Amino acid sequence: MKKFTVSTSTPYDILIGHDLISQIGEFLKPVFSPRHVCVITDSTVNGLYAQVVMTSLIESGYHTSKILFPSGEHSKNLTTYSNILEALADEGLTRSDLILALGGGVVCDLAGFAAGTYMRGINYVVVPTTLQASIDTAIGGKTGINLLGGKNLAGVFWQPSLVVCDSKIYETLPNDILLEGIAEATKNAVIAEKGLLNHIRNHNYEYVIERCISIKKSLVEADERETSLRQLLNFGHTVGHGIEKLSSYTVTHGQAVAKGMIAEARGAYALGLTPNDISGELTDILNEFGFDTSLDYDAKAIYKLALKDKKIRDGHINIIVPDSIGKCTLKKLSLPELSELIMLGFNQI
Ligand code: GLY
After folding, report:
1. Ligand 1 in contact with 140 (CB < 6 A)?
2. pLDDT by residue (tens digit) across 89-129?
3. pLDDT, position 171
4. Is 128 in the pocket of ligand 1 (CB under 6 A)?
5. Please, what is the end-to-end C-alpha distance for the chain in angstroms?
6. Which member of 180, 184, 193, 224 is catalytic?
7. Which residue from 68, 93, 226, 312 could staple onto 97, CB 3.0 to 4.6 Å apart?
8. What pLDDT was estimated at residue 158?
9. Catalytic, out of 217, 234, 245, 318
10. Distance set, CA 161 to CA 120, 122, 343 (Å)
């Protein structure tokens, strides 16, 4: 088993190893003496992993309960969030109790937001069940929900107390779910480490997870509340979130980020922000990994949605510009420049 410690305002460990969820109760014990643990999960993960997690918790002396919601991005809304808060109150959870988020990105975001706001914040532990959640959502303490106006528009920074990544789970992930993680891993390759691409090609997921966690850990430690360097992790997301919203979330997050990375890289080059156009090479890589790289969207509509990007401050936005695959920088653009970058990214100028 490997252990990373994330040195944020409240430090916590990330454990990575094989078949860890069946011992989750034992991993919790050094951090939390037996108490009420409320497992929050979705309808898909419930049938796969909830039983083994609950059994382990009970065997380790914890009192358990479970809150369940329908799986999918459509659940990441105010209604599910308020249902979870009411259920926590009905269960009688107190500030000395614990939430355990068991699931993919949507579960991590929702359960983390509930943990960060119920009784003004209680502890939570994350057991991610997808590659995407393990290398991205589960770590760094970004929590939240979508509003009608856009993706992730309500939320809090609230760091977990422990993250437990079970590599056995990745062996049985359906291909479409695996691809969601491969999109984020490819993003990490572009922003920080080109060598990751070969490990993705070779399905060397244990290494991919460790390196991606390490990259994210460094950025989160340097900039916990995303005022500067952490923004690098948003490469492809300004356009990607727009594509997700425009498609009413029928295009998944990973698929949308894949398209967003191509458009943002192409737009940055066309706008003269970088001497190198990586969009062709990146498109080939993403095609090879199995992504749909078509960009048939109305660039003006994407720009309108991009105006909701949380990186916008004082009429400017930091855009992530790839200088090469493996090295990106942040460049500050005015909103008219952002509009031009997006139009150029979609070849609509
Ligand atoms: N998902 C990007 C971040 O956590 O900053």
Report:
1. yes
2. 999 999 999 999 999 999 999 999 999 999 999 999 999 99
3. 84
4. no
5. 52
6. 184
7. 93
8. 98
9. 234
10. 16, 10, 42
Is 224 marked active-site? no
Query: Can you read off the two tokens belonging to residue 221?
Result: 């430690």
To test the ligand 1 pocket, which listed residue (113, 135, 159, 230) has its Cβ within 8 A of the most ligand atoms? 230
Structure tokens at 128: 């991610």
Reading the block at residue 293, the tokens are 């790289």
**pLDDT tens-digit readout, 11-21:** 999 999 999 99
Are the C-beta atoms of residues 84 and 107 closer than 8 Å to each other?
Answer: no
